[in-house]
Amino acid sequence: MSPRSDAQKPHPVECAGAVVRDAEGRLLLVRRGHPPSEGLWSLPGGRIEPGESAAQAAAREAREETGLNVLVGKLLGTVDLWGNYRIHDFAATVVGGELRAGDDAAEVRWCSDEDVALMSLSPGLLDELRKMEER
């Protein structure tokens, strides 16, 4: 079997995430209820729907997964994961809603940096968060 050419390589699934911190500096994380990363903690986020911008997707996914309405700010970074997902992560601020796990999130909570360092996170998330904070 011959190797795939770049022309045959599938396009990555475009996704968006929200990096949300509260007034105390805690990070909003969700525990995934479904693959990929089922059971692991991650930023609220998911696939970009047709006709939706990455920023719109980040806001929608945050609302669906956490019950919170967020105002999406600047793009903090884009990362390719597992060879088939491209995730655009945005800074976001809570502007309303009530914290609750929804959609495909099994759990949602605010986490201190100390909590985050000890949690079972989606692969590469801690490194990406550190890179984003350096920018």
Structural account:
This protein has 135 residues and is an alpha+beta fold. It has a single domain, classed as Nucleoside Triphosphate Pyrophosphohydrolase. Helix content is 21%, strand content 39%. The chain has helices at residues 54-66, 113-118, 125-134, and strands spanning 13-20, 27-32, 41-42, 45-47, 68-81, 85-97, 105-111. The strands form two sheets. It has a four-stranded mixed beta sheet, covered by helices on one side. It has a three-stranded antiparallel beta sheet with strand order 3-2-7.
List keywords for this structure.
135 residues, alpha+beta, Nucleoside Triphosphate Pyrophosphohydrolase, four-stranded mixed beta sheet, three-stranded antiparallel beta sheet, 3 helices, 7 strands, 39% strand
Question: How would you summarize the topology of this molecule?
Answer:
Elements lengths: L12 E8 L6 E6 L8 E2 L2 E3 L6 H13 L1 E14 L3 E13 L7 E7 L1 H6 L6 H10 L1
Parallel strand pairs: 1-6
Antiparallel strand pairs: 1-4, 2-3, 2-7, 5-6
**Average pLDDT for all residues:** 90
Number of domains as seen in the coordinates: 1
Rg result: 15 Å
End-to-end separation: 43 Å
CATH topology: Nucleoside Triphosphate Pyrophosphohydrolase
- Relative strand content: 35-45%
Structural class computed from helices and strand pairing: alpha+beta
